[in-house]
TrEMBL record:
<dbReference type="InterPro" id="IPR050678">
    <property type="entry name" value="DNA_Partitioning_ATPase"/>
</dbReference>
<dbReference type="InterPro" id="IPR027417">
    <property type="entry name" value="P-loop_NTPase"/>
</dbReference>
<dbReference type="Pfam" id="PF13614">
    <property type="entry name" value="AAA_31"/>
</dbReference>
<protein>
    <submittedName>
        <fullName>Chromosome partitioning protein</fullName>
    </submittedName>
</protein>
<dbReference type="InterPro" id="IPR025669">
    <property type="entry name" value="AAA_dom"/>
</dbReference>
Length: 257
């Protein structure tokens, strides 16, 4: 299973969802890999505690190899970082990804990530891809390489308007590059069940026939605490309600595996 977590809108909890689903996967005994494709490296920091120059080159080094030429150029290798959590590994991101992007676009390296994942799939049960909040080279590469896409959504009108365009773009990419890509669904994040507007918006999306998943992730200060100590919720507080929502979401998404 290769799942990309993506929304072009920032602040919807994309990295938090990718990391916590990956952590639940690993805690359940699946050999799990998260690939961080965002130059901000939030997922890298969250799962490793590393910052700045402490972070290994990871995915940036892999993409640099794809640009190298000559008989002695190293090709297609990637360093994988072992997190403090059993069964959970990370291919780290660094700020250098932003500098590499125009070169990769110019050289048409859009299928290199898919080839890498074909190799890594032999060693991992579940692979998660965290993407930048933009439809750029790295996100398109991830959508081409993945077989499933999960769309985080926070309940406001700006997110709703962006959602329609996002679904259309995924359909177009699926038709042109990856006909096996499946939109698993829209997961509502930072949900406030007692507030009228979020529930009304959610009901309208369901009525429109959009693939809204039945598990909503609540808004909680526990998530911020989790970020601060670089510990996914399943390891920070397994009994917390938000943790259990992540477990329920994970099990729902992987029920057919």
């Amino acid at each position: 299973m290769r799942r990309v977590v993506f929304n072009q809108k920032g602040g919807v909890g994309k990295s938090s969802i990718a990391c916590n689903l990956a952590a639940v996967s690993a805690a359940q005994g699946y050999r799990t890999l998260l690939i961080d494709l965002d130059a901000q490296a939030n997922s890298t920091h969250y799962l490793t505690g590393l910052t700045g120059e402490e972070i290994p080159m990871g995915i940036a080094d892999f993409f640099k190899q794809t640009l190298a030429s000559g008989p002695f150029a190293k090709k297609g290798k990637v360093d994988i970082y072992e997190t403090p959590f059993d069964n959970l590994h990370v291919v780290t991101a660094t700020a250098e990804l932003a500098e590499l992007q125009p070169k990769l676009e110019q050289k048409h390296k859009i299928n290199k990530l898919r080839k890498l994942l074909d190799e890594l799939a032999e060693d991992y049960d579940h692979i998660y891809l965290d993407t930048p909040p933009a439809l750029n080279f790295y996100t398109v590469s991830a959508l081409i390489a993945a077989d499933r896409v999960l769309i985080p959504f926070d309940c406001d009108s700006f997110s709703r308007n962006a959602l329609y365009g996002l679904l259309a773009e995924i359909d177009e990419l699926k038709e042109d590059h990856n006909d096996g890509l499946e939109v698993e669904g829209i997961v509502v994040n930072q949900f406030q069940p007692r507030a009228t507007l979020p529930q009304q918006l959610l009901d309208e999306l369901v009525a429109e026939g959009l693939p809204v998943l039945p598990v909503n992730l609540m808004s909680s200060v526990k998530m911020r605490e989790s970020h601060q100590v670089c510990t996914p919720l399943i390891h920070l507080d397994a009994r917390h309600k938000l943790t259990q929502q992540f477990v329920e979401l994970h099990d729902l998404l992987n029920a057919a595996d």
